[in-house]
Amino acid sequence: MKLDLFLKNGLLVFPGEGALPGGLGIRDGKIVLTAALGEEFDAARSIDCQGQWIMPGIIDPHVHFGFGDPENDFRTESRSAALGGVTSVISFYRTKDFREGFDAERTRAESQSVIDFSYHLGLTNDLHVKTLAECYERFGVSSYKMYMMYKGQAGLAKGFTDIDDGLLFAAMRETAALPGAILGVHCENVEVIPYLRDPLRAEGRDDLVAWDEQSPDFLEAENVHRVCYFARKTGCAVNIVHLSSKEALDEVRRHRYAGGPPMYVETCPHYLFTDKHDPAGVLAKANPPLRSQDDVDALWEGILDGTVTTVGTDHVPRKRATKEKSVWSASNGLPGVATFLPILMEAGYHQRQVPPEVLAMVASRTAARTYNMHGKGTLTPGADADIVVVDPDLERVVDPANLLSYSDYSPFEGRSLRGWPTMTFSRGRLLAENGKLTDAAIDGTGHYLPRLPKHQR
Predict the structure, then answer these.
(1) H-helix or E-strand containing 342?
(2) Exposed, middle or buried, 374 (CB in 10 Å: 0-12/13-18/19+)?
(3) How confident is the model at residue 161 (pLDDT cuts 50, 70, 90)?
(4) 112 — phi, psi (to 5°)?
(5) CA distance 81 to 393
(6) What ranges make up the beta strands (E) of 94-181?
(7) What average pLDDT score do residues 51-55 get?
(8) pLDDT tens across 340-394, in order?
(9) What Å distances lie between residue 18 and 204, 221, 308, 343, 379, CA to CA?
(10) How many other CB atoms are there within 10 angstroms of residue 259's CB atom?
(11) What pLDDT, on the 0 to 100 scale, is given for residue 160?
(12) What is the average per-residue pLDDT within 24-44?
């Protein structure tokens, strides 16, 4: 059998299992073999990886493509993702009625994206919950999100009138009835925030520490408790998205039990890398806020003990001008899809000696399993040839001009990170090499990923 591509002399990183020197064979967009170090195979192209890591392509299960330039974000942001070693993303889609808008949204993304993609549906009204089963079957979408920070007055400001604990409970019941479905929840008690925020503003506070103090860790933990408690009552699989604090993480530990519903935890690279004293200031404003160094350390402990199951960037590709305001009026969120892997490498591998197989687990394999992304997140023969080759010692300074995002800033700009991708392959196509896109990064070459369990397909 002649291969299309043979990657040799690398360190094969098997998520959750270990890392071994060897090579990888690819044919017709699939992984067809793993090879021992020194083995050779006939291939149209052989690449000597010279000891670099060969990992499953990174999966970013939490991006907001469309929050920057809605008509073109899948073009710019999928390319930025590919530069960073990300080969699949799941973006969020919100509209009044998914049944009327989803096909057009997917068609636009299919015409632009250079990597594979899917969607979570953002649940903001009663109609969304009532039509969940129909959308599950029609669109192959098995993951959803509730926004507990948009209850009451906070929701009304965005036009959301139905978000409350009743909608959360109803969404859990509907999700629990769908095989393989999962409900993600943004956990912050928005009703208490004004009580804490208004005195801070009156004092003239305008910094990241104040942003943390107006929505402290216990407000996140309180909402996590509520979500996990309702999950136990409904049997719904839940994912606490962008979890930021030790106290909230401990709530998940407290509620998990053998035989109970799955309770997943996602955190973000920024919560693993920096804290509320970050010199980037308002550029690093996010929801939930950056916390303390103790929280950063606790999240890494959660990755090592398996409490934290996935990492997603919460990537929001807005312009610098939307951030350079007071902390109270600057836009929320930050771009991060291109720096996802380098931050895990710097903060995890270099600073904490987290093993490669653990990083590959939280950055790829578990997301594929959690979200029914068949053929992703593994180096097993038969899987899609979504691969990132990483030089663990390659050091670069973050420069937003080189990241190709619609966003023109990075909260990490000017910082030196060790561990950058040198090659990114999507279904065997070399999309990026040595920090540059290749001619294979063509509009519309990414695939939409329906994500129902295999027996439902």
Answers:
(1) helix 340-343
(2) middle
(3) confident
(4) -115, -35
(5) 20
(6) 116-123, 143-147
(7) 98
(8) 999 999 999 999 999 999 999 999 999 999 999 999 999 999 999 999 999 999 9
(9) 51, 33, 19, 21, 12
(10) 4
(11) 79
(12) 97
Tens of pLDDT, residue by residue over 204-239, are 999 999 999 999 999 999 999 999 999 999 999 999
| Residue pair 41/3 in contact by the 8 Å Cβ criterion | yes
Look at residues 376, 310, 318, 430 and name the one whose alpha carbon lies nearest to residue 116. 376
Residue 456 has pLDDT above 70, yes or no: no
pLDDT band (50, 70, 90) for residue 151 = confident
C-alpha to C-alpha distance for 297 and 325, rounded to whole angstroms:
30
**Is beta strand 387-397 parallel, antiparallel or unpaired with respect to 53-56?**
antiparallel
Q: Read off the amino acid at residue 111.
A: S
Task: Say whether 246 sits in a helix, a strand or coil.
Answer: helix
**Other CB atoms within 10 Å distance of the CB of residue 332:** 16
Q: How far is CA 436 from the centre of its chain?
A: 22
Task: Dump strand ranges (E) for 40-130.
Answer: 43-48, 53-56, 58-63, 86-93, 116-123
Kindly give, in sequence order, each residue whose CB lies less than 8 Å from that of residue 100, ignoring residues fewer than 6 positions away: none
Residues 6+ apart with CB under 8 A from 154: 190, 193
Residue type, 81: A
* Residue 164 predicted with pLDDT over 80: yes
Strand, helix or coil at 349? helix
CB neighbours (10 Å) of residue 40? 10
How does DSSP classify residue 374?
T
Neighbours of 133 (CB within 10 A): 14
Q: Tens of pLDDT along 255-285?
A: 999 899 999 999 999 999 999 999 999 999 9
Task: Give residue 337's pLDDT.
Answer: 98
Pair 295, 249: CB distance under 8 Å:
no
The stretches of 235-268 forming alpha helices (DSSP H) are 246-255
H or E segment to which residue 165 belongs: helix 165-176
Residue 457 pLDDT grade (very low, low, confident, very high; cuts 50, 70, 90): low
- 2-34 as b/e: b if 16+ CB within 10 A: ebbbbbbbbbbbbbeeebebbbbbbbebbbbeb
Report the C-alpha gap between 45 and 53 in whole angstroms. Answer: 19
